[in-house]
Every structure is written in C-alpha cells, then in structure tokens.
Design goal:
By secondary structure, the chain is an alpha/beta fold. The protein has two domains: about 15-305, 3-Layer(aba) Sandwich (UDP-N-acetylmuramoyl-L-alanine:D-glutamate ligase), CATH 3.40.1190.20; about 325-520, Alpha-Beta Barrel (TIM Barrel), CATH 3.20.20. It is about 35% helix and about 20% strand. It is built from 18 helices and 19 strands. An eight-stranded parallel β-barrel has the order 12-13-14-15-16-17-18-19, surrounded by five helices. A seven-stranded mixed beta sheet has the order 6-3-2-1-4-5-7. Helix 1 crosses helix 8 (about 240-255). The longest helix has 17 residues, at about 260-275.
Length: about 525
Amino acid sequence: MIKVKIKSPVRPVVLTLAGNDCSGMAGLAMDIRTQTALGIHTAPVTTANTAQSHTGVDAVNAVDNRVLESQLKAASALPFAVIKSGLIANLQQITQIKAFVEKQPVPWVCDPVLKASSGEQLHDSASANDNTFNKSVLNNRQPNDDYLSRFKTELLPHISVITPNRDEAVALTGQPIKNHQDVEHAAEKLLAMGAQSVVIKGGHRLSQSPQFNNWCQDYFSDGNKSFWLSSKRLDTVNSRGTGCAFASALASALALEYPIYDAVVIAKMAVHQGLRLGYGHDLAQGPVSIQAFPDKQIDLPCLTSQGDFALESFKFTDCNSPAMGLYPVVDRASWIPRLAPLGVSTIQLRVKDLADEPLIDEIKSAIKLAKQHNCRLFINDYWQLAIKLGAYGVHLGQEDLDTADIEAIQKAGLALGISTHCHYEVARAHSYQPSYIACGPVYPTDSKVMPWIPHDLQGLSYWRRVLNYPLTAIGGINRSRIADVAKTGVDAIAMISAITQADDPEQVAADFVKLINTNKA
C-alpha cells in the first residue's frame, strides 16, 4: 500500500486565556469559534468555569492556581504568535499571568472582562485556591478596588492592545463617559497607565449624542495615531459574546501578520458580520456568529479622525458608465488626443514637475482636450485647480485627504477617486463614499517607493469581493499580467510606465484595451 504524504496548511496559533461559558455564548467557546473562522488555531487556557445562562451568572469557579500554571506550561509548547486574554478571575491569576506574559515576546490582546452582560461582577479579590462564588454573592458584589488597582499596575504595562467597552473604561479610569471627547480622554488615561494601544468599544450608545445612536462607534489610539470606526447599528438581540469576539478577531488578525491599524478594522468588520449572522434560541438571545474572514462591504466601517464626523454626508457620482477599463496615468495633456481615440474613456493627469502658471496652463489644456474627446479626466492632487478649471474629477492619495476640502469637491460636482493600500486606508476612503477606490500595488512597482507588500491577484480578488465601489487596480501591471488582472473583475486598470515608456504607446494602449475587454470578468 502506497502512503500519500499530504502537506497540510499551517495555521498561526493564538494562546487564549478566558473563562469557560457553559452556555457556549461567550468566553472560550466564542474565542475558539471566532479564531477558527479567521484561520487561526486556538490554544485554550481556562481561567474559570462559569455557570451561566440567559438568566444570568449563577457561579464563577476560578481554576486552581496549579491548574492554571500547568495549562500555561503545556500550551506554551505550541509556537503561539499572539496572546489573547478574557476573564482573569482573581488576584492570584493577575500575578500568574503577569509572570507568564513578561517572558513572552509576542503581542498581548486583553479584553478586561469585569462584568457579565447581565451585570454580575466576574472577578474576585481572593487569592486562595478555592475561588467559587455563587449567584447570591455575585449579585451583591461591587467593583473591587484592589483587583482594579492590581490589574492596572501589574498588567496594563504589558498589554499590547486593551479592548474595554465603555463601562469597563469607566471602571479602569474612574472617568465618566458621556460623549466622544470623554472616550478620547479615557483612552489617553489608559495609555498613560502603560497600555501600548487602546480600543474603547462602542456598542453602548453615547447618550448625549443622539444623532449617532444609529451607529456603533469604537475608538482606537496608540498615542501616535487615533481614529474612530463607525458601523451601522443592527436591529438584533443576538449579540452575546461581542467583546470576546472582537478581541479574538483582533488577536487573529495580528497573528496573521496584519499591522495593528488594519487588525482593528478587520476585527470591527468581523464583529459586524457576526451580528448580521448571529442566531438565537427559543427562550433567549443568542451569540454573534463570525463565520469567515470578513469580505463584504456591508461590514466595512467608516474610519474617521473625529467621532462627530458627519457620517453619510458624502456621496460622489458614479464614474463607471461606460466602464472605465484602461486607465492611463499621464504627465502631460498631449497624451489625451493620442490615447482617447483608442477606446480609452478615462485618463488621469499626474503632473509632478510644474508649478504656478505652467501647471495651470497644463491642467487647463488637459481639461479642454478631454472634453473634446469625451474623456473623463481626473486631476491628481490639485483639487483646487480641478474645481476652478472645471475638471471631471479629482484623484487623491491618503496624505491628500488630510488637507483637501472634500466638501468643496463634492459641492463642485466633481467625481472623486482615492488611493488605498490596506484595510485601514480602505475604511478611511469608505467614509467619503468616493466615485472609485484604487487598490495597489498589485505587483512590485518602480514608479514610486512603497512600504506595502504587493497584493498579488489573490489580494486583488479579495478587494473585488469586498468592495461595491468601482475598483481600480494599479501597480506593476504590464502586458504579461493585464489579462489575469482583468479576470479578477476590476473595473479599471491603471497603467503608467507600461504605456508612457513604450516604444509605440498607441499600439500598446490599443492592445491593452483589447486584452481588458476580452478578459474582463
């Protein structure tokens, strides 16, 4: 008998410390389901066995100190990439977990579980091995100052990302939260206490900001970059385990080697997916149900620098009728009459070597020629001149979004395209509802130095699944690659040097138009 050797896929490992929820709604049950859905292997370490149901928590049975120690030792045999923690049941566990994480050179995502959804306190100040406390005790317990003090002084300085909800942020900082500014100040306090980064989750409404009650808003800060993530509130009661799911999704994204800013966006998308797909039971609300790595625009949050950003205030014109197709990026107006007659309906003018009157004259000439050839002309960067001179649209990079007057561009009736390279930037572009989103680099490119890893066809296909916007592929695309790129279903393929540096640009452009039309999905 011949044995066939099967090469199995390798999954990153997340070492996960949390309580066991016998109802299967939260804790380790939710952690394992979420991490598995995102392509992660969970190494589960139980901190407590809780007795709970839809009526509340009946008992919290913290594991013996020696049991926790033995689990940590055994789980450490696996090459875990990230630590994720939920319920830490008592002071002794704080000491044990501190001693453990101090020795680990991996990120730690901490969900500071202080209360159950039904309101019971879940931690204890005891250090003894017998840490069983029942419903009558739970119902009469108050937040324990000793526990909170030890948590803040011993654990916070080792936490890579802490993910409290607003009630937990209040308990940890002692600061009431009533509005967006309070959330930001609470995050600053947690950073000052030692956390490397903070996500304050926003499932709870900001009562003094009723215009935002239809949105779930989370706030991230690491002291260098801060932003808000806003998703439409869903009308569902099946929301058990959202905190566990968020932290697990965040830990999973980090284990998959996404940068922290992308990982937070992915976690927000995953929880929104889980809320959409959550399921219930005959007698009770059920859990969120994250079933796959998020790949739907409906789950994509809006990313903004301000919590009171006027969400849904932007909506730019659709620029994909007729289909954009080949999208040359050129540096002079003289390219327009050469390329437009070849079936090119959209061109971008990107001028880097002119200023003042010569720049104005070049843009003015390009707009005139584009109108003569019935071609949609996007002006790169120079949005003020595009408005003043009456261009069809503006294309902006991420850095331009910091200074451009997006409202003025919209009021002028111009189309808007935005460059993106990652989840963070796509979520940021999404908040403006642009005419198209450009995604790149697809392949390595020499046109500019880029810090991003190329998407390749798999990554480009992912963004095609996610986005309902017209999608432009850009970066390193040439004759040998253009057909495969077109097959992903993108709406436009931006080309720079492959056309402008060709020996016969017109023939090359005509060939590219034919290849796109022949191979488009």
